[in-house]
Amino acid sequence: MTADPEWQKSSYCGEGEACVYVLATPGHLVRVADRADPAHLVLATTQAAWADFLRAVKEHG
Fold it and tell me: Which of 21, 33, 51, 54 has the maximal Cβ count within 10 Å?
């Protein structure tokens, strides 16, 4: 039996629940939600596209 994957909270979050959570599984999609609840999924993308997005945010703010 495998453990349920854990959502990671963005390090840029403030207090409260207004935050972005990310779940990445090796070889699979990256899931992004507005809270640590898979039922509130707002985006699913490939790991390559997610890496490109993060790189662009870091470079351009």
Answer: 21
